[in-house]
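R.M. (postdoc): so does anyone remember the format we settled on? I'll just put the C-alpha cells first.
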C-alpha cells in the first residue's frame, strides 16, 4: 500500500521538533530553526536516504510508534510530513530528524524508496 501524506505538518509536530532539538542545541538556535521549518518549502526525500543521512537505525515494525504508523498506512490515513535539520558532513554532524523518525521507519518498512514530504532547513543562528 502506498503511503499517503498530509500537505503540511501539524502544529504539534513543530512543538515535538523543538522539544527534541532542545536536547542538542541552544534555545536561540532552536527557536530560529523551528521558525525556518514552518516557512520552508516542502521537498521530498526517500526514506532510505533520510535514515542514512541521519545515521539512524531502522526501527522494527514491532516498535509501538512504528506499529501505529504502519496501521495508519494500512488504513489509508495520511501521515504528517517530517521535519529535518540539515547536517554538516565536513564537521561530522548528521542530519537531524527533528520530528518524524517513526514515520520515516514505517515508510521505509512499506518501501525503502518511499518519497517522504519533508521540511528541510539548515540550523539557524
Amino acid at each position: 500500500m502506498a503511503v499517503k501524506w498530509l500537505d503540511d505538518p501539524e502544529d504539534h509536530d513543530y512543538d515535538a521538533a523543538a522539544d527534541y532539538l532542545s536536547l542538542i542545541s541552544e534555545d536561540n538556535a532552536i527557536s530560529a530553526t523551528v521558525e525556518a521549518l514552518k516557512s520552508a518549502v516542502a521537498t521530498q526525500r526517500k526514506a532510505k536516504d533520510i535514515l542514512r543521512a541521519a545515521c539512524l537505525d531502522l526501527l522494527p515494525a514491532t516498535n509501538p510508534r512504528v506499529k501505529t504508523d504502519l496501521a495508519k498506512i494500512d488504513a489509508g490515513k495520511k501521515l504528517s510530513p517530517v521535519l529535518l535539520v540539515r547536517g554538516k558532513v565536513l564537521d561530522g554532524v548528521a542530519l537531524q530528524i527533528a520530528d518524524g523518525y517513526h514515520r520515516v521507519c514505517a515508510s521505509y518498512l512499506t518501501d525503502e524508496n518511499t518519497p517522504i514530504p519533508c521540511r528541510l532547513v539548515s540550523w539557524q543562528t
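R.M.: ...and that's the designed sequence above, right after the C-alpha cells. Also worth knowing: Residues 4-121 form a domain with the Conserved hypothetical protein from pyrococcus furiosus pfu- 392566-001, ParB domain fold (CATH 3.90.1530). The chain has one domain: 4-121.
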